[in-house]
Amino acid sequence: MGKTTAVCTVSDTNVSSTEVLSSALRARTGRPGRHLKTTTTVGLEIGEWQSPDGQTVSVVGTPGQERFDLVRKSAMPRSTGVVLWLFGHHDLALLDTELWLEFIAAEVSTSKLTVAVTRLEEAGTQLDGFREVVAACDDRIPVIAADPRDRNSVVEVLHTALRIPHSSPATEKPATEKEAVG
User: What one-character DSSP code corresponds to residue 113?
Assistant: First the structure.
């Protein structure tokens, strides 16, 4: 969770919202959880971010609900990098991680994937569980704690997803083409 927030936080252009009131107030388990929100994304939310070298990067948020799989599937294959935003502080977070990894791995190469975990109380120790689950899929997938409300945090996620070295803007390698992150 955090896709819409991350796109809006980092975008240098206006993002058209595809958020609507959620009709589902319960998770797959049939019980409410603290991680549920009252709205849901039903389409692609597209913004643009200027990388430090001046390249325009399309940043795309996709729906999280299974009933919108077709929308997600349309965006991922064309993406240079894919970020899986996970809500880290709920009982089923690691199971959600496994399910998402299965879905994404069936659609794109895991070499495109970065996992960003939000809302962790103790990032260092809590990330270990996510890293274990992700490593079982592909131990090369980066797993980082991130806050989709913080522009610097989202930029760090984009750098990781696009495999841009984390350094000062003056020493970053230029991107070679317009890139999309889903």
Answer: E
Say what the alpha-carbon torsion angle 46, 47, 48, 49 is, to the nearest 10 degrees.
-120
**Which of 23-27, 51-55, 153-157 is least confident?**
23-27
Residue 27: inside a domain: no
Which DSSP category does 174 fall into? P
pLDDT of amino acid 39: 79
Number of domains in the chain: 1
Domain span at 113? 3-21+34-181
Distance CA 101, CA 89 (A): 18
CA 139 to CA 154: how far, in whole Å? 22
**Spatial separation of the C-alpha atoms in residues 166 and 58, rounded to whole Å:** 19
What CATH number does the domain containing 117 carry?
3.40.50.300
- pLDDT attached to residue 182: 53
Cα torsion 140, 36, 59, 9: sign: negative
* Domain assignment present for 154: yes
